[in-house]
Task: structure prediction
Amino acid sequence: QQQVKQSPQSLIVQKGGISIINCAYENTAFDYFPWYQQFPGKGPALLIAIRPDVSEKKEGRFTISFNKSAKQFSLHIMDSQPGDSATYFCAASIGGTRGNKLVFGAGTILRVKS
Amino acid sequence: KAGVTQTPRYLIKTRGQQVTLSCSPISGHRSVSWYQQTPGQGLQFLFEYFSETQRNKGNFPGRFSGRQFSNSRSEMNVSTLELGDSALYLCASSGGTGGSEQYFGPGTRLTVT
Result:
């Protein structure tokens, strides 16, 4: 019940295209869903996050779509650029007094071809 | 604001030894969480400290321990190192309330030989 399943494992997109990464969860107590971007040799960087009271959140070229009934959420990267080539992780946590334990997906290696 | 800092950045230890890693959170942040990242297991939660108290704990053996100081700086300790402990150890800092944004440091790369 604590798992977050992420797909695909790897993704190749042409420059200017749309990159889409999907995640699914089981635990309906999760109420915070962030996405992280990680470059080799660096720690994960928070990209964008969503809570279940909204179905979509957009920040620049990055959009999270959230489907509460299906227990799924996805990251869309519009106009993908070679500089977006990195590993992306979805995550989920239960907030409030339960603290900040993040459960991560397995990661998606994105390569944007120029 | 300065980001999360972790020291040392790289460590090489021998099986059976112990190691202490340090994390300084973003100024004003009271929650520090530790994660282990390996190619096989991905990112796994170790524990979280808030106001010097352990608030959450992951499924790791007792060889992994941590503490937090009054200035919110945190240390984690691994005793009796095993080869499988080789990993990137990441520290994340948060404002404190549950389910809030966590910001990661660059990590400490631990190699056990």
User: Anything to note?
Assistant: Chain A touches chain B at residues 31-32, 34, 36, 41-46, 49, 51, 89, 91, 93-107 (CB under 8 Å). The radius of gyration of chain A is 14 Å.
